[in-house]
Amino acid sequence: MKTNSATARRGVLAHLEQMALRVGQKAPDFDVTSSSGQRVRLSEFLGKKNVVLYFYPGDFTPVCTRETCGFRDSYAELASKDTEVVGVSIDSDQSHERFAKQYEVPFALVSDSARILSTSYEAMSLFSRLTGKVGRITYVIDKKGDIAGVFDSELRASKHVDGVRDLVRKLG
What is the pTM (predicted TM-score) of this model? Predict the structure, then answer.
């Protein structure tokens, strides 16, 4: 049986959309070490802080830099609403350290070169599968450990940053 390429693409996209974690689900637990050596565990935030866990393709790229700087510029506001930000890509700790220093990033950046965290959060989009990088997806996890919001846009960093700020204001 033959399938045309448009049908095949729709099937792949539908499969990827079904894979994404959804609002209301329990967030997968994580225990990682940031590029600065800080241990970051979801369990440490439960009952205390919301968590913005954003996955991005790479340090020093235009959209990723815009997104990270957007979270940096919003960090004081987010922190005042009991919210912590954690950025994740497959770049090395050394790359993250240079990136954080150059752009004065005040929150943890995590290297996920083995793609363990990215896989558990289903951050592998069609784009990421083609490039070998993680996709651009942001999760807001509430103080109970539930996913309160999911923002997914490969090219619009503002969709992630603005969406997170609006949602965190509502979470209180």
Answer: 0.85
